[in-house]
Amino acid sequence: MLVLGIDTSCDDTSASVVEDGKKILSNIVSNQSEIHAKYGGIVPELASRRHIEMIQPVVDEALRAAGAQLSDISAVAVCHGPGLIGSLLIGCSFAKALCYSRGIPLVAVNHLEGHILSVFLETPSPKFPFLSLVVSGGHTSLYLARDYGLYNELGRTRDDAAGEAYDKVSKLLGLGYPGGPVIDKLARQGDPRTIDFPRAYLPETLDFSFSGMKTAVLNFMRSCAAGRDTRFDAGDVKLVENISASFQAAVIDVLVRKTEWAIRKKRVGNVTLSGGVAANSALRERIKKMAEERGVEVFVPPPALCTDNAAMIAVAGYHRFLKGEIAGLDLNPKAYLPLG
Ligand code: KG4
Ligand code: ZN
Fold first, then answer.
1. Can you give the residue ranges of the Gcp-like domain (predicted)?
2. Which of 105, 155, 251, 335 is the most buried (most CB within 10 A)?
3. Superfamily assignment of 124-300 in CATH?
């Protein structure tokens, strides 16, 4: 069974054809980073306009690359939230028009469920119940996935998402958007012990908080620039690498420690890591090491399936379609759409 997935939740226009909820036949992602880079973050209106231009060619390319026709498609799975409302509207309107004109069933998918189920695009895949850490630009949450479609949120960020913190720190350092990949790269050349940025562990809960870390970076940079922190020279090129490494170490310490707490609390044998920040090389290593030490199996998709893509939407849509969850043509996108 072939499902066509569509995701336009943020700044990537993506379409994918997935067979039987497992095998990727195509996964096309048209990235808009170049458009938003000069603003240091996503400009929603520009994102929507670009989605309008790209949605048809991206869907056509996904079908062509999969060697499929619309008549081969059993269902169209579209992400209807959470995300930027103008962006979501393009994908949803396009999917509805396609389904209406070709008589194809429409399935609505929560973007976060897509990230959780992205691990099923790889072999081996986890067994339910598993703990899922989703770390992206808009979300940082821990879920207990009990089955397809059954998720309990154990904790979430109370302020910034981890990816958002990367993007904001990158902007402070003048490194552009998106911040994750560039900080990931610079951090490899820096010393993570240079600056001891605060880690907000919030001991009584599985919630997260990252906004203090971004402020700590800002305060540190101001101290250097004003010459108050004489240990560091603001003109030192090594400083940016060391700030990147120290900031990244603080983010990863919190993510890994809280995942460890959740494993202990829920006594699960399988843990997954997904979302854009899961593309981070150091985080992938640290989660794997922690899981190994605890005797827990860990599943992390390849980086291209961690960042936004429509294959993960097709997987989630496939399982909803099997359960007969068909959306009406009155489907409306939602900027805020909690899961579980
Ligand atoms: O999942 P995603 O593509 O979109 C959302 O659903 O938000 O995640 C995008 C986020 C951005 O904040 C980006 O900076 C971050 O993922 N990211 C990374 C890396 N690659 C992307 N963060 C850290 N290290 C990376 N290698
Ligand atoms: Zn995402």
1. 23-314
2. 251
3. ATPase, nucleotide binding domain (3.30.420.40)
The CATH H-level superfamily of 2-117+305-322 is: ATPase, nucleotide binding domain (3.30.420.40)
Whether residue 15 contacts residue 58, with contact meaning beta carbons closer than 8 Å, is answered with: yes
124-300 shares the fold of 2-117+305-322: yes
Q: What is the pLDDT of residues 115-166, one digit of tens each?
A: 999 999 999 999 999 999 999 999 999 999 999 999 999 999 999 999 999 9
**CA 104 to ligand 1 center in whole angstroms:** 32
Q: pLDDT by residue (tens digit) across 68-86?
A: 999 999 999 999 999 999 9
pLDDT in tens, 236-272: 889 999 999 999 999 999 999 999 999 999 999 999 9
Residue 308 beta carbon below 6 angstroms from any ligand 1 atom? yes
Judge contact between 95 and 105, C-beta under 8 A: no
Q: Whose CA is nearest to atom 18 of ligand 1?
A: 180
Q: Where are the domains of the chain?
A: 2-117+305-322, 124-300
Distance 43 CA to ligand 1 centre (A): 16
For the entire predicted model, the pTM comes to 0.97
Query: Does 92 have pLDDT greater than 90?
Result: yes
Minimal-distance CA residue to ligand 1 atom 8: 276
- Ligand index nearest the alpha carbon of residue 29: 1
Pocket lining: 301 vs ligand 1, CB cutoff 6 Å: no
